[in-house]
Amino acid sequence: MSRVASGNGAEDPAKAAGVRGDGLDDIRRVAGPTLFLFTEWIRYIRLLGVAQGIAIARQLRMPYRILTGVTVNVPGIAAPLVIRQGISDVRVFRQVFVARDYDLQLPADRTAIKTIIDGGANAGYSTAFFATEFPNARVIAIEPEASNFAALTANTRAYPNVSRVNAAIWGNSGVVKIANPDAEKWSMQVVPAESGPAAIKAMTIDEILKESGQTRIDLLKLDVEGAEREIFSGECAWLDRVGFIAIEIHDRMKPDCSEAVYTATRRHGFERIGQRGENVILGRPAPPAQSASSNG
């Protein structure tokens, strides 16, 4: 979850100083830490109610962390969610439920969304959001890092429409490993690896579809910390079976991610139709409406 590229493949100038894309560091720098934390108190109280909101807000510290792990009940979410102590979970939680970065406002009937792949599911907050917003959809959550996958499992086991896969989405099948195990939990990158105790299964989009028994992806969400360059390299024939894409593009972490994503998606008829938080939203333009005269 870092930097987003603009629609022409160039990096967003607002991110040029290396600031995290969720904007928290920008706000804190301008407002000062006291006003910033007060503003966050208000946000959490509005979302969770007074008791829960204050319970989290009282623990917020800089850098943006909480002092102890907490379990929260989010209105509309089927089961309590765990926010782990001292790591990036609270920022991811904020993106999903406070800023609502995955409220994508897709130009489609919600009931038409039947299959969602949540690539880079992290602790499962986005998965829980999708499973709630699209209760008739099957949500396939993919997460490579072991502790994130454990949190994902705990946070989504209440949803019968969610399946979880401990793997990395990659450009070819094989094995990968975590390249930066000491980094933030929302910044885990993978690189090719040999078999061994640190090896993680690498899967292509085609393999995920085959193993899940699905033929189409109505919404493909990807936040894969630079692996999008490998995923979108090559022919990418699977794109013909995708309806919408919500993707965070990580040129800062790996060069040429934007080029790979936009080249492949344009070739298969996608265009940029919006942006929500750090997520670029891609879809195909609707066909022009037929006039009465053209219908005879």
Question: Could you please say which CATH topology applies here?
Answer: Rossmann fold
* Poorly predicted ranges: 2-20
Major sheet size, sense and barrel closure: 7 strands, mixed
Strand pairing plus helix content: what structural class?
Answer: alpha/beta
In short:
With 296 residues, the chain is α/β, with parallel strands linked by helices. The protein is 29% helix and 21% strand.
What does this structure look like?
It is a single chain. With 296 residues, this protein is of the alpha/beta class. It has a single domain (20-283), classed as Rossmann fold (3-Layer(aba) Sandwich). It contains nine helices and 15 strands. It has helices at 24-31, 33-48, 50-57, 89-98, 125-133, 146-156, 205-212, 228-231, 257-267; strands at residues 60-61, 65-66, 70-72, 81-83, 115-119, 138-142, 162-165, 168-169, 174-178, 190-192, 200-203, 217-222, 242-247, 271-276, 279-283. It has a seven-stranded mixed β-sheet with strand order 7-6-5-12-13-15-14. Helix 1 crosses helix 2 (33-48) and helix 2 (33-48) runs antiparallel to helix 3 (50-57). The radius of gyration is 19 Å and the shape is globular. The chain starts with 23 loop residues before the first helix and ends in a 13-residue tail after the last strand. Residues 2-20 have low confidence and may be disordered.
